[in-house]
């Protein structure tokens, strides 16, 4: 006698966000959160000068990861956001600009206050 498949229970975080926000908004907010995280890491490791390019690529990696997290961890169906291409582009400019603005502004403030003579 074949076994009945066990119905999959939705993950607790999926149940929470599905009743609150749309999948497009989830991808957008995830991008903003990862922009903050990426800028903090770039500042913590002091990526400037030639290493600034490493910091920029770190921002690009975080933008791509910020799309993969909602799709594969939070269970967003790519069809709900118009496919993989449209989902990857949703909030891309905002995420990159948020990363760069935070990185530049905070780095300049930190450099300014640490370079002041005593």
Which descriptor suits the 3D outline? elongated
* Cα Rg: 19 Å
- Protein structure class: mainly alpha
Q: State the end-to-end CA separation.
A: 82 Å
Give the amount of beta strand, in percent.
Answer: under 5%
Fraction of helical residues: 55-70%
Figure out the total of helices.
5
Elements, N to C (H/E)? HHHHH
Give a summary of the structure in a few sentences.
With 118 residues, the protein is mainly alpha-helical. Helix content is 68%, strand content 0%.
Structure description:
It is a single chain. This protein has helices spanning about 10-20, 25-45, 50-75, 85-90, 90-115. The mean pLDDT is about 75. It starts with 11 loop residues before the first helix and ends with a helix. The chain contains five helices and no strands.
SSE map:
Layout: H1 12-18, H2 23-44, H3 52-73, H4 84-89, H5 92-114
Task: Name the features.
118 residues; mainly alpha; elongated
